[in-house]
């Protein structure tokens, strides 16, 4: 056991993210086209905005701006989820947040495995939105049994991947050669299989129960279903997708475009119909198609407090009561207009968002000399007013259930919304996962609190030094 020889989890994650990107571009050429469009638009935005260019250079690494921020998979069993947690832990990715998608008519619940602390996010922010199929929501008992049996028979991890996870756990990490092998082995789990592990008939019955059930149950593994780079202008990418021959979903999910961006805006191109084949009892292959894989883009804003989030949810609900976006795009302009009008009620300056307690901020020293005039325990507002302390929005690094439902929908076809009974299942999800998920609100509150504590500590050490 030699910790020095271990590769940092951040580097393993970065290598994994790069390997996924290369594999997915090859598997889904339209995704490569989307990446090119995003790179072009990001370059154009930066050329026109030297201030943004400078700020990104200081805070982020500019070259990595267009790299993938997230991907998504859908798992079939508790055992798969529990093992996936151990795989991601080797890469410094931990479960954050719980999303019950059954409320939106999608038979899964989910978490996001992601780097947590600031340094890790900066090194490489790649995360994987990971869903577990809710087989209990299949009403047809016979079909549910067949789905269960099919899933229990499959092994989505290579023996090499499992062995390396165990090694990383017992030895506290992996050396260079093992880390390289680990990425190669784990990549296999995310690969596309065009030969289904079910018959055409079973596929159809699963598909009729819900398209997503067919997607999870019918294949050897949980193929990565999309990757998502960051864009600096999501509206421009949305508008230009058709010019590059790709078909965007009808609306951008999340809040409207604003001066002070909040939470997360996302859009995707619609999933492609791809050739697959189904096996029959005699070992013959029947050709068919399956629609699951797409490409997405995202643009992030400030993390909201529970109060801010409640306002966001209220305004989004109010918008959707006025206009429900149609998947065929027939009322997109109307929806976007309603969204903008309704969200006028959400303050659009950092000062006001902070004053009303709607968002999380990180506080830092702006002017040492000005700070020196304050004693320990000094009032925050007074320090801000005196120009001693400044505040910056904390970026939202998680997901949104309504948006996620919209993203799922974009690859489920336009008629796939179904009613499922809602039930609070976080406990069961955590049991299956074998761990608790980190509450995202508590996490952002802690970052804010720690930034304030650091300022108070500065005041105390300054006083002690006098
Ligand atoms: C995941 C959809 C959720 C997002 O960005 O909100 C998601 C899926 O389709 O499996 O990735
Ligand atoms: Ni996504």
Question: What is the element layout, followed by pairings?
Answer:
Elements lengths: L8 H19 L1 H20 L1 H10 L8 E8 L2 H13 L3 E7 L7 E7 L3 H6 L3 E7 L7 H13 L5 H13 L4 H14 L10 H10 L1 H7 L8 E4 L4 H7 L23 E16 L5 E16 L5 H17 L9 H11 L7 H6 L5 E5 L2 H4 L8 H6 L3 E5 L7 H10 L15 H8 L6 H26 L1
Parallel strand pairs: 1-4
Antiparallel strand pairs: 1-5, 2-3, 3-4, 6-7, 8-9
Helix pairs in contact: 1-2, 1-8, 4-7, 4-18, 7-8, 9-10, 12-13
Bound molecules: 2-oxoadipic acid (OOG) and nickel (II) ion.
Keywords: Dioxygenase, Iron, Oxidoreductase
Cofactor: Fe(2+)
Protein name: 2-oxoadipate dioxygenase/decarboxylase
The name of the CATH topology of the domain at 3-232 and 423-435 is 2,3-Dihydroxybiphenyl 1,2-Dioxygenase, domain 1
CATH class of the domain at 3-232 and 423-435: Alpha Beta
Task: Assign the CATH architecture of the domain at 3-232 and 423-435.
Answer: Roll
What structural class do helix, strand and pairing data support? alpha+beta
Shape: globular
- End-to-end distance: 47 Å
Which small compounds were modeled alongside the protein? 2-oxoadipic acid, nickel (II) ion
Radius of gyration: 23 Å
Mean pLDDT rating: 93
Share in helix: 40-55%
